[in-house]
Amino acid sequence: MILTAIELENFRQFRGTQRLELSTSPDRNVTVVYGANGAGKTSLLNAFTWALYRACSPGFEQPDHLINEQAWAEAQPGDDVAATVTLEFEHEGRRYSVRRTTVDRKNTEGAASRVKDAVVSVGFIDEDGEHHNRDDTSAGTINEVLPERLHRFFFFDGERIEQLVKPDAYAEIEQAIKGILGLQVVENAIKHTDEARKDLERELRDLGTDEDRALADELAQVRTKRDERRETVAQHRRNLTALEDERQVVGDRLAQLAEAATLQHEREELERDLEESEKSIRASRTSLSDHIARKGWLAFAAGLAQQTSAVFEERRERGEIPSDLKRQFVEDLLERGRCICGCELTPDTDPYSLVAEWRERAVHADVEAAWTRLPALAEGTLTRRKELYSYLHETLAELSRHREGRKRIVDKLSAISDSLRHGDSDTVKELEEQRERIGASITEQQRLLARAEVEIEGLDERERTLERELEKARAENERAEIARRRVSVARSGASIFREILDLRTEEVREQLDRRIKDLYSKISFKAYVPLLDASFRLDLRNAEGQRSASVAKSTGENQILSLTFVGALAEHARDRYDEAQRDGGDGLLTFQGGVYPVVMDSPFGSLDLNYQQRVAEAIPHLAPQVVVFVSQSQGLGAVQEQMGPRISREYVIDFHTPKEDLEVETITLRSGAYPYISRSTAGERAELIPVRTTP
Amino acid sequence: MTAKEQIAQLIREASPDTKKAIAAIFRIEKEHAYHSRPVRVKEQIIAAIREAVK
Q1: Residue B43, pLDDT above cutoff 90
Q2: Per-residue pLDDT for A553 more than 60?
Q3: Which pLDDT score is estimated for A364?
Q4: Contact A196 B49 (CB under 8 A)
Q5: What is the spatial distance between Cα A66 and Cα A10, in angstroms, rounded to a whole number?
Q6: According to a count of CB atoms within 10 Å of the terminal CB, is the N or C end of chain A lower?
Q7: Whole-number mean pLDDT of chain A?
Q8: SS3 annotation, A597-663
Q9: Any idea which of A75-79, A145-149, A166-170, A193-197 has the lowest mean pLDDT?
Q10: Is A231 part of the contact surface with chain B (CB cutoff 8 Å)?
Q11: Which of B7, B29, B36 sits opposite A189 (nearest CB)?
Q12: In total, how many domains does chain B have?
């Protein structure tokens, strides 16, 4: 998607028709619009998202009042007044035009009644030059080009972008990752296949006997309950993440207070030790259960090995092992029909019966060989038993050491907490008490989480049992058998889709994490390392990989981190898009991605000069096309200096205001001075002035 | 093993009925992916499963 132009008609501050042509050059990919605070930069940003998705940013005031006030004031009763935004873009060889309009009618009292509410139409010219219009499926067309769930990452307010690194943003980031991969198709497949399965189960239930129905009813209840528990588990996990973040914030505050800093740092180190200690305990326990599961039988084998050896010894002493007479030898005599003494051996005669009796007494060669091996085997079993006992003693001793170590750490942590609670500072005391309360809530959430997980395990087991019983009960009914297979296919299909979703999500999270690290190291001069962790939390760590109070406190670092995330997302989407184009990309194994522009308002916010320059340097590289709105006071120098060679189009919003006490202002750019704030005799309005076009 | 290989293995190991069904379901979902109000997707999926298991 490459944006080519946006046209506004009586939209907010923009009176009449105003057009903004955008840079489409790959080398000079930046378009800059300068405007004073309140001149219409945020309105311009929202014009993009409103046209595409009818969406406005959180900070955009009165999103229902889009019609230009001056146009409305000049309208006569009975007149219709429209606010319209037309966005033009190119995508895969087609030229699109999205037009959204809201129309209000002015009544005799001057009040508005809505005639058209954000009606949208999409037109496009295809590769053959044919014109098409899509009114009914316009939302689908736009979503195909840039999915709505992703728009906040590509059209955003720079001052708010740092929200991405806030602790509660991980759900949004997870959604973005799924969106960028086109994984909503798989999510929908899971949802719809589960719904289909329920219908098929009802069908199956109707085909069954009373017994089947009772089982099917119970199965449905078990599944409903299990789904509820899964949601409970997800909620407990969300609560835990939020509580852990809250505890981290309190810890960071303690670390900043002189009277608590040393103890808090000591506690952070001890908590890391505790984590390590618990990891070791878990590893020892896993190793123990693994050994016991595989070799635990050896503990009961001592008597067996001794008895076997005794029996062998007894038989050997009786001369039965090794045997003088082999069974095969007797069988050969019977088959030849003649004994070694020369006597004829005919079936049903006494000589034959006498020789045949020896066959029963003789030992089979294989059995004798096995008996011969037995003493060595018995000895080996005893040796392995000794080894098992030795391993158990060592590992139990190690476990005990780890437990003692853990106890020492817990005691130290408890002592630190006591010192902080009983110190002289009320602030420290309050923070510590708050931290303890959060800790108690975390323990409670962990307890509830564990209980819900155990319940889920039980319900899963019950589900499997009921499924087996139901299958058995229905086996003889042919129609029911087909219905059962359909249910089974729906279930296994949904399960495969779930696994695909998990695998793909994790894969792209890892890839994004690598890209973010790489991009961040190029932009920031701090020795921090960004991390997109397994729970989609984006934050900065110190060189040791730890979160701590000193890391990521500055808005500048957070803003760079957020921009890095957007850049990594855009880059990843481009790569996936290229891959999909190359491989045909319509199967389960490839996902589409896309080429997206970045449109940002106030990218520098209140950053200091150093950060402004770094951010300005990074912005042109974020995406193939970048549109930036800045004010004279926020980053004009950085834009001109760092982004200058990449700018192809520049505009100034000349803001006309009737305020008499306001000073008229101009903005000085390289190409000259331009009106920035002008005096108006006819209400407030904004006018887009083209400044420069460099091909 | 990469995610792509694991997914390929998952599909390879599925029963023939399941393979047919998931290919059809995925096709249906792709067709409806960008519609703001998907219509009768569930019914189409049920029909696809019936077709896969006769």
Answers
A1: yes
A2: no
A3: 66
A4: yes
A5: 8
A6: C
A7: 85
A8: CEEEECCCCCCCHHHHHHHHHHHHHCCCCEEEEECCCCCHHHHHHHHHHHEEEEEEEEEEECCCCCC
A9: A166-170
A10: no
A11: B29
A12: 1
pLDDT-derived band of residue A325, with 50, 70 and 90 as boundaries? low
Which residues lie across from A628 on neighbouring strands?
A: A32, A600
Handedness of CA A230, A231, A237, A240 (dihedral sign): negative
Determine the angle formed by the axes of helices A258-295 and A365-421, rounding to 10 degrees: 170
Q: Is A506 on the interface with B (CB under 8 A)?
A: yes
What single DSSP character describes residue A554? S
Does residue A499 belong to the interface with chain B, where contact is any CB pair within 8 Å? yes
In a domain, A199, yes or no: no
Residue A655 in contact with residue A40, Cβ under 8 Å?
A: yes
Q: From chain A, pick out residues whose CB is under 8 angstroms from the CB of B26.
A: 185, 189, 587-588
Does a structural domain hold residue A439? no
Q: Do B7 and A588 touch (CB under 8 A)?
A: yes
Kindly state whether residue A313 falls inside one of the protein's structural domains.
no
Mutate to test the interface with A, among B11, B46, B51, B54 (most CBs of A within 10 A): B46
CA distance A236 to A248: 18
Whether residue B2 lies inside any domain: the answer is no
Question: Is A489 close to B41, i.e. CB distance below 8 A?
Answer: no
CA distances from A194 to A189, A396, A458, B43 (A): 8, 47, 21, 12
Angle, in degrees to the nearest 10, between helices B16-32 and A184-207: 130
**ipTM value for the complex:** 0.95
Structural domain that includes position A134: 2-146+596-693
Would B26 be classed as within a structural domain?
Answer: yes
Contacts of B4 in chain A (CB under 8 A): 589
Q: Is residue B43 domain-resident?
A: yes
Q: What's the structural domain count of chain A?
A: 1
Q: Please, are residues A150 and A180 in contact by the beta-carbon 8 Å criterion?
A: yes
The reported pLDDT for the residue numbered A125 is 76
User: Residue B30 sits in which domain range?
Assistant: 15-52
